[in-house]
Amino acid sequence: MEKKHSEIAGKERGPGPGCYELPSTIGFTGHDFTKFSSPAYSFHGTISNYMYCIDSSPGPQYHIDAKLTRFGRDGTPAYSMLGRMKTPKELFQTPGPGAYSPEKAPPCNLQRRAPSYTMGYRTHNRSVDSVPAPNKYHLPPLMGPQVPNKQASASYTMSDIYSTGGPSVDLAKTPGPCRYNSTDPNVYLTRQPAFSMLGRHSLPRDATKKPGPGAYNPEKVSVNKARAPAYSMGIRHSEFVTPLVINVAD
Is this prediction's pTM over 0.85? Predict the structure, then answer.
């Protein structure tokens, strides 16, 4: 009697998503009846030259001005600049506003005329007029004590340097303020702490040269070993084998 073994459920492989064939949702023939179909359009074939000769109407390539609307022409009035035309000699030339001088005409409606003045030359009588001009008058100055109707402030004068007995000549030989020296407070008060600043000292260091990480060659182990370690690819184990668990965390 043949012994039956139970099959592992993980070995049973079902069909993938690509194995299922659902009805298409594109087109009309064979469309999925559970989905709504959109309207379908077809491209007509090219008509013959005979049909084109019969129907030769233009396509939708009309040049319509952008200012034309269904209510009429839109936009502001447009004007153009032309050259000045020659005026015929036989036509009457109307004078412009600058050709008239209404100020020269006498008043015709009893209105008063505005005062008018003229600038004439100096007469002989004005030359003997003894009235002084405005620039002949001089007002008294406001600086100094010579103002008759103003209160003057104190005024000072600067004289020259005296050779004998002047301020610059020190007859008593009195020392000035800069000749006195200020006493150090540490002389008559408690002496303050004093500090000094020394130079920077270098720390003692080892002057021997140390090799860096790049100076080592760990792959060259033939000095103390037979050869460098090598690795190989093992066989593929079954994914259904239970791993060996030794230490189980509580």
Answer: no
